[in-house]
Amino acid sequence: MPDFSAIPSALKDRPQWLCWRLEGKPGAKKLAKVPYYASGKIRKGVQGSESDRAALVTFDAAVAAMDKTKASGIGFAFLPDDGLIGIDLDKMVDCDTGEISPRAQKIIEACASYTEWSPSGNGFHIYVLGQTDTTKDNGIGVEMFCSSQFFTVTGKHLAGSPADVQAIDATVLRRLRKTIDLAKGGFTDKAPAPPKTPPKTSPPGSPLSDRERVLSALNAIDPGVGYDDWYQIGMALQAALGPDGFDAWDAWSARSDKYPGSRELVSHWKSFKPGRVGIGTLFHHAKQAGWKSPRGWKPKPFVPLVQAPAGEMITAEILGNPFWRRGLWRSETGNAKPCRENAVHMLMEHPSLAKLVGYNVFANRVELLREPPWGGVVGEWKPKDTSELADWLANEIGVLMKLRDVSDAVALAGWRNFMNPVLEQFNALPAWDGTDRLDYWLIECMGALDKPYHRLVGRKFLMGLVKRVLQPGCKFDYMLIFEGPQGRGKSSAFRILAMRDEWFNDTPFSANLDKDSRMALHGCLLYEISEMHAFNQADHRAVKAFISQMDDKLRAPYAEQFETFKRTLVFGGTTNETEYFRDTTGNRRFWPVAICNANLERLKEWLPQLYAEALHRVRANESVFPSREEENELCVPEQKARLIAHPWVDFIALWLGKPEMALAKFVSYPEIFEQALKLEPARIDHLGNAQKHVRACMDALGWYPDRDRIGEVQVRGFKRLTLEDQADKGDDDVPI
C-alpha cells in the first residue's frame, strides 16, 4: 500500500503528477501501467508539450483524482528541462528472502538520493537531480528516464537512503550509463555461454573454407550499420551457414551500441524466410568496407568485449576505435563520402578526435576538451577550429567537406558529450563543516554593519546563486548592490564569488536591453552591473522584467530558429552613489549594501565553505526568498533610503507642514496643484503624467489615494496614513 507522507517536497511541489491504471492489452502476458490525466483522459501525444503540461496537476490534485476515478495509483511525469532523472531498478529483490541484489545495493549507494519501493515490491525507483538521455536494458533491469516517461509512486521510502532528492555525481552517472551500454552489448551477470557449435577452421596454410570466408567478410563490416542492412546481413548468414549462422550474427551484433540482446535476435532469426537474401549481400557490404577475400588466413574468433559490472570504474579510458574506417559511409567505388555523417563518425570514433569536443550546457556552447591534433588550446570552439578540422579530415580520409557540414558535425558530436563544469565544481566542494558563514560574510569579508538585514540578504543571495546552478531557470529575481567609494573592492568581490574569470562578466548593457544584452548572459555565474549605468538609463519597468525573467527566448546568431535558454546566473550591482532608485512604486528586487574596505583574502578563504553551506541549505529545501515580514521590516526601509526624491516632494511637504494643514486628513488634487505647486489648470497635461508624479510624491510622504466629498461634489485626493494603516500596508509584489 502507498504511503505518500514520505514523498519529498522537491517532488510534491512540482505540477507534474498524474494517475495510472493497470490494464490488459491484446496479446500481452501481463497487465500494463497506463497513464491517465487527473481529468480521466488517457495520456497521449507529445510528452512535455504545452497541452501535456497543462493537463498534469499538483500532488494533492492527483491524490484526489485517484480516489475519485478509482485509479490504481498516482504517478510522477518527467518533463524536458525539469532537471530530474528517474532510475528504475526492476527484479532486484529475492521474493523468498527479501534480499536486495548486490547490483541494486551498489547503484542505490552510488546515487545517494531519495529511493522508494516500486509497486511490485521487487524493484526500486530512484529520483536524482541531473540531465542525461533516456536509456535502458531489460536484460539487467536498469532504466534511466529523463525528459519523458513516468514513475508509479508508492512513497514507500527505502530505509537508509536519503529522504530528499539529491544531485547525482557526474562520475556515477557516467558509470551507470556505461553499465547499461555494456549490457546492451550482451553483458549479463552470468558468464557468456559457449557457442553451440565449435567453429570449423582449415589447417594452417590451406585455402579458407566457405565458413571462414563468410566470417572474414562479416568481420570487416561495422556492426553499427543501419537497421535494414543489419537485418539483411542476418538473413544472408542464415542462407550461407544455416542454424550455425545465428552465433556469428549474435556475436557480431554484440559489438554495436545498438545491440538489442540475444532474445530479440532469436525472434528476428525465426522470422527469416529462405531465398529472399543470399550471401552476395554480405560480400557486397564487406567490399564496400574495403574487404578483399584472403587465402590461407585464419580469421580471429568473435569474442565479446570485456565488460565491467555495475559500480566498478574502468581505470584506463581508451579513446576511439582502432577499426574506425569500417563505419565510414562509402560510395559505390568504395571511397569515403564527403558528408556530415562521416565527420560525426570521425569525431566519435577516430582515436585522434574521440572526446575532443563536448557541449557545455552551462555556457550553451561547444568546447574543445583537449588539445586538437592541429594544435590549439582547450576552450571555446571557434570558426578557425572548424576550418582546421575540415583540412585535417581531407588529409586523413581524402574527402573535401563543406564547412557547414563540418560545423554541424561538431555540434552533433558535442551534444552527445555534454557536461556542466559549474555543477561539477559544486559537487566537488568539501562537505560543509557546520559553521554558519552565510549570515556573516557581508560583515566579516565586506565590512558591512552587523545588522539583521545584512545577514538576511547575504545568506539568500548565495543560496539563490547555488539554486540557479542546480535548477536552471528557477525563480530568483534579486540583485545584490555594493555601495561605496572607488577602491573598496566591490567588483573584485563579485569576481571572486564567480569562482572563475570566465564565469564572470561586467560588460555594460545597452540602454534598451536588447538581444545582445541577453546573449552576454550565457556562460555567466555572476553578472555585474557596473555603476548601475545601463539600468539608470533604461525604463524601470523594463529593468524589473529583465531581472525577473527565468529564461531568454531568442535566436542566436546564424541559428535557424528561436531557442529557450534557461538562466543559470544572478546579478550583482556596484555604485558610488547613495541615492539611485527612480521607481517610486517599489524596489524589492534590489538589495543595497553599504560596504567599507573589503577583506578579499578572507572572502577567498571562506568561499569553498560558503558555497558548501549554501549547497547544503538549498538541498535541504530552505527557501531562497525572504518572508513577507522580513521584506517589510528589513528590506523596504533600506530600499526607500536609496530612492531619488521627486523635486515636487519638498514643495508639497512644505505646504503640508504649514500650521493650517496640521489637522488635515484629506487633501484633493486641485488643492495640491493650486496651493502647493502653483500650477494653473491649463498647464496640467491631459495624459495624467502630473497626477502620476503627485501620487508618487504623496506616497513617499505617507499619504495614500482616496476619495472624499467636498460639499455636493466627490473629488479625488489623498488621505493621511495612520500608524495602523502603515502597519497593514504591504508590498503586493513580495512573493509568499
* Main CATH class of the largest domain: Alpha Beta
CATH architecture of the largest domain: 3-Layer(aba) Sandwich
The major pleated sheet works out as: 6 strands, mixed
Q: Give me the CATH superfamily of the largest domain.
A: P-loop containing nucleotide triphosphate hydrolases
- Helical proportion, percent range: 25-40%
Tertiary shape: elongated
The total beta strand count reads: 24
**How many helical stretches?**
26
What does this structure look like?
With 736 residues, the chain is an alpha/beta fold. The protein has 5 domains: 4-184; 194-316, no CATH class; 326-415, no CATH class; 427-641, P-loop containing nucleotide triphosphate hydrolases (Rossmann fold, 3-Layer(aba) Sandwich), CATH 3.40.50; 647-728, no CATH class. The protein contains 26 helices and 24 strands. A hairpin with an 8-residue loop joins strand 18 and strand 19. Helix 7 (227-241) packs antiparallel against helix 8 (245-253). The radius of gyration is 34 Å and the shape is elongated. The model is unreliable at 186-208, 296-316 and 729-736 (pLDDT under 50).
